[in-house]
């Protein structure tokens, strides 16, 4: 089947470029693989918050449905662009774990869920205002910093993919069992075969078909749990201001800090999307993208769910399949919107076993690391740049592997450094500003001196 590419792959190395429009049938399949990759992450945050706060099941369902519905709206706007809002690149949006710590702290206070949503609504002003500063902030992201940020994204996500690969959580009795690893490895092999030797739609939608084959095999071996599907509502419409709004000062401060962290992470994700789509991401691009994040998060608070940011796992899909069409991701937004209206559809996607996700996830996240390596390969080799790369990536891995590292530090410190992406990015930015440029020596210069 033809991909109907409007520009030659020789120009960019992509099967579909950003402005290419595949056929409707192919668009749906390509959009579905983005949906499969993102859905688990989108519903994970409301599920975690709902379960930890011990909300009634009906309230948790409201959080989940609203997350899917608003994710669809914000994903569509981010990819299509409406006026000054939206980066106009293939960016899937979803609820962010960056806000979980602040949300739980507020939720356990007297303000409850209303305090979480009110603080999120007021805090979104930080992100909306920050969007207009992005053209000026871009000077803090030269190639060496950008490469470190993109690599930090991939390194931070690998541990998630490994847990999926092994079957979920370490507490699971079947974690890393032989059958679990075999299932994940089978899916990974199918992805490799389709990417390397698949033609047309089978190469472009390699993630989708690999997960579909893995799901069918899991069904055959009785590894799919349909409990959530049976209990899910067929149709539901999220209600605006279901929990009400409250505005605790401490909660607003905590959420505002989380939004500042998200600005850094979103900037890194947008740069990674630029790398994957062969698009030069300018300050104006990032401004429109961050503005969409902020306005989308404000909308999410009004519709009774948690704030949003761009999803890094979907960048990996673009890198693997070489499909960069923003129209595909616009349709992913439409599918997410429908999933919010039909919870049973979302429950069916969530029934995909963790090893099936893991087989594809390891490849997706590793491809983001490859993107970062390619960016750093174009950076001048010098002691200064070597220090920036080593320390920032080391800091990223330290927080990713040992998140309890900052347990005894003040709460605001943990809020900022709880993410390996943010930690690695901040170290790269700070070091790039303070290390003197006049002491750089390239490898060539050093060899000539000797």
Automatic annotation (TrEMBL):
Bilayer topology term: Multi-pass membrane protein
Name the GO cellular-component terms. Answer: plasma membrane
One Pfam family this chain carries? Answer: Xan_ur_permease
What compartments host this protein?
A: Cell membrane
Mind telling me which InterPro entries this protein's record contains?
Answer: NCS2, UacT-like, Xan_ur_permease
- GO MF term (any one): xanthine transmembrane transporter activity
Print the keywords alphabetically.
Answer: Cell membrane, Membrane, Transmembrane, Transmembrane helix, Transport
Membrane-spanning ranges: 24-48, 60-77, 89-108, 114-133, 140-162, 174-194, 201-221, 241-261, 328-350, 356-373
Query: Which family does this protein fall into?
Result: Belongs to the nucleobase:cation symporter-2 (NCS2) (TC 2.A.40) family.
Mind telling me what this protein is named? Purine permease
């Amino acid at each position: 089947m033809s991909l109907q590419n409007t520009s030659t792959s020789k120009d960019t190395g992509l099967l579909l470029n950003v402005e290419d429009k595949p056929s409707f049938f192919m668009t749906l399949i390509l959009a579905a693989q983005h949906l499969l990759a993102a859905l688990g992450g989108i519903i994970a945050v409301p599920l975690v918050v709902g379960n930890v706060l011990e909300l009634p099941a009906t309230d948790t369902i409201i959080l989940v449905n609203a997350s899917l519905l608003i994710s669809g709206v914000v994903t569509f706007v981010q990819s299509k662009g409406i006026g000054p809002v939206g980066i106009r690149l293939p960016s899937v949006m979803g609820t962010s774990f960056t806000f979980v710590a602040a949300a739980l702290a507020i939720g356990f206070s007297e303000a409850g869920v209303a305090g979480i949503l009110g603080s999120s609504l007021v805090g979104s002003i930080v992100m909306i205002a920050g969007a207009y500063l992005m053209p000026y902030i871009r000077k803090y992201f030269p190639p060496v910093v950008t490469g470190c940020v993109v690599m930090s994204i991939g390194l931070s996500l690998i541990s998630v993919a490994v847990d999926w690969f092994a079957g979920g959580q370490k507490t699971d009795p079947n974690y890393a069992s032989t059958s679990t690893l075999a299932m994940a490895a089978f899916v990974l092999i199918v992805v490799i075969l389709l990417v390397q030797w698949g033609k047309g739609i089978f190469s472009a939608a390699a993630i989708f078909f690999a997960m579909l084959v893995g799901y069918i095999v899991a069904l055959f071996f009785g590894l799919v749990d349909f409990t959530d599907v049976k209990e899910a509502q067929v149709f539901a419409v999220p209600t605006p201001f279901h929990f009400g709004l409250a505005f605790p000062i401490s909660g607003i401060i905590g959420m505002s800090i989380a939004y500042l962290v998200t600005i850094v992470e979103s900037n890194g994700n947008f740069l990674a999307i630029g790398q994957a789509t062969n698009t030069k991401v300018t300050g104006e691009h990032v401004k429109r993208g961050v503005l969409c994040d902020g306005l989308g998060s404000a909308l999410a608070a009004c519709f009774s769910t948690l704030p949003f940011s761009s999803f890094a796992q979907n960048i990996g899909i673009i890198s693997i399949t070489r499909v960069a069409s923003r129209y595909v991701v616009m349709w992913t937004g439409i599918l997410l919107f429908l999933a919010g209206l039909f919870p049973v559809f979302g429950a069916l996607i969530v029934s995909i076993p963790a090893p099936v996700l893991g087989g594809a996830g390891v490849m997706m996240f590793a491809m983001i690391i490859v993107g970062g390596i390619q960016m750093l390969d174009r950076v001048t080799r010098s002691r200064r740049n070597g220090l920036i790369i080593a320390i920032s990536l080391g800091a990223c891995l330290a927080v990713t592997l040992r998140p309890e590292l900052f347990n005894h530090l003040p709460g605001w410190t943990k809020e900022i450094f709880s993410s390996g992406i943010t930690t690695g990015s901040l170290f790269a930015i700070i070091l790039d500003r303070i290390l003197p440029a006049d002491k750089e020596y390239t490898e060539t210069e050093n060899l000539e001196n000797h």
